[in-house]
Amino acid sequence: MGKSLPKALSSKSTFAWLLIAPAAAYLCLIVVWPLLETIRLSFTDANIGGESYVGTANYEKLANSKKFAATIGRTFYWMFISVSLKMVLGLLGASLLNAKIPGRAAFRVLVMPPWIIPIAIGCLGWLWLYNGQFGLISGALQYVGITDGPFEFLAYKQSAFYSAIVTDVWVGTPMVAIFFLAALQGVSTDLYEAAYVDGASRWYRFRRITLPQIFPVIVSMALLSAIWTFNSFEIVWILTEGGPRSATTTLIIDTYKTAIASFKFGPGAARAVVIVVLLSIFAIVYMVVLKKLEKRFGSK
Amino acid sequence: MMDRYSLLEKIGLYIAIGIFLIFILLPFFEMFMTSLRPLDHLRSAPYKFWSDEFSFDAYSSMWVTVPKLGRYIFNGVFIAGAVTVLAMIFIIPAAYAFARFEFRGKALTLSLFLAVNMFAGAVLLIPLYRVLRTLGLLNTYFAMIIPGAAFLVPMGIWLLKSYLEKIPKELEEAAYVDGASKMYTLRRVMLPLAGPGLVVVGVSVFIGAYAQQYLFAITFNQNSDYMPLPAGVFEFIGYQDVVWNEMMAASLVGVLPVMLIFLFMQRFLIAGLTAGAIKE
Q1: Is the residue at B13 inside a domain?
Q2: pTM, entire model
Q3: Is the backbone of residue A199 left (phi > 0), alpha (psi -120 to 50) or beta?
Q4: Once rounded to an integer, what is the mean pLDDT over residues B190-207?
């Protein structure tokens, strides 16, 4: 078949481009074009009725809004806390699942459900757990006497925010743990055996062999997880819809509320562009800082 | 020898795993307990840990309360399956190109693909809505399948590329020497060798597609015939009352098919990931 193709195709790079073209075209249609369109819309007052050019008015409004500044801060705080917890719990979980003890195979399977089931279904479970009147957690707290009466976890600013974080961590940790587990298993046993023979303790082996060896995986996982957590929509939307009094409104929730729930496409698009810009800056800073650290502290 | 644990260490390990698993499984446990209780019992404070009236009634009445429940369950699995097939059609050739060929702009192209991860669907909803309307796809299965697959393609390419890079080049070169074309080599030499890698990527894409249907479903589809479970299950929230016990029963039954499939696949998943999919 290859022989009948025109000669140009036999060049390796042309063939490579041909293989990439379908995916590239598809992403152009579903991601790149909508992105450009979002940028264009952000300079308009587009709504259900129509649209007209308004210059940078949408952005000026955002820049002067204290509420929006608070939303940005809240989103980064949300991302930082949640991703840190996912990384620590993921690493801890992976190490536990990697221990050679009876029941290991079963434990591995039991950890995965939050990752596999639809996020929305898991959120329903948490919604019910957080219920003050009839929920298990509030009930247990009353039973042991920590609280006198029912406690509505999602009704107060602080508790709603951290409840949403717990759910987000619950959804995100299993996948992180499984990927870390795979990385742990990829570490050569020779290294451990050599260290063991030299009398290194388990903790020492973890710090000096395991961590450096799987460090690249942790780094890329943390970045991916940060981006996903930043844009995490379903969990907050189902638990609180951004409330109470905006306590759980992250940028993505604010964007959805503005654009889809209130049909203010222009201002919504401006918020979407802010998200993309902030995330790009974050990703670049993250990678630059990492390179610098790597240089300073030698290889890994 | 090195992996021997003292009795104390073992007890510690099991306690730690136990705490971890309680956190992970608590919602499922409570969902199950809720599904067994009569509704008026759920609506009584203070919270009771045990009930004398446990029954499986909700598991039969839920099909009456939400008549299309079976359809929703099917739709969820069907959409995730279709997304997986569509995504793999784009992932396989692109991953092969990135793994095997050197060409100008390769690193840049790859980073552009990965940058797609930054644009979650929620950011692009407005224009996506217009694209789908222009194509006449709103309120069809495609409204959920087409955008759903796009955001899983970059991750899939990345995973599969890393896996393919682990397959020795010599095998392909032998095929070339024997006069096989590039297409033939991809189909007959690489694909069979990449089997485990394809399973890993396929399962990961399916999980991603199955887990994240909610947003596109509530935004791009109003037709209840095409609604997947994550959106349909909210029909148990009525105007006056939430039928919690049936909603929990429906949630558990609804995810059961995928859980069972996964139970068979998880061995390959961990083994495949370990085999090199993510090691750089």
Answers
A1: no
A2: 0.89
A3: left
A4: 86
ipTM over 0.85: yes
Domain that holds residue B201: 67-277
Contact criterion met (CB below 8 Å) for A267 and A58: yes
- Among B131, B181, B214, the residue with its CB nearest the CB of A120 is B214
- Which helix (H) or strand (E) is A142 found in, with range? helix A136-143
Q: How many domains does chain B divide into? A: 1
Which of B14, B21, B24 to probe the A interface (max A CBs under 10 A)? B24
DSSP-assigned states of every residue in B8-54: HHHHHHHHHHHHHHHHHHHHHHHHHHHHHS-HHHHT-SS--S--S--
Domain spanning A42-117+168-296, CATH architecture: Orthogonal Bundle (1.10)
Residue ranges in chain A whose pLDDT is less than 50: 1-9, 300
Per-residue pLDDT tens for B97-121? 998 888 888 888 888 888 887 777 7
Q: How far is A234 from chain B (nearest CA, A)?
A: 7
In a domain, residue B273? The reply is yes
The answer as to whether B138 is a domain residue is yes
Of B122, B182, B259, the CB nearest to A252: B122
Return the minimum-mean-pLDDT range out of A16-25, B144-153, B182-191.
B182-191
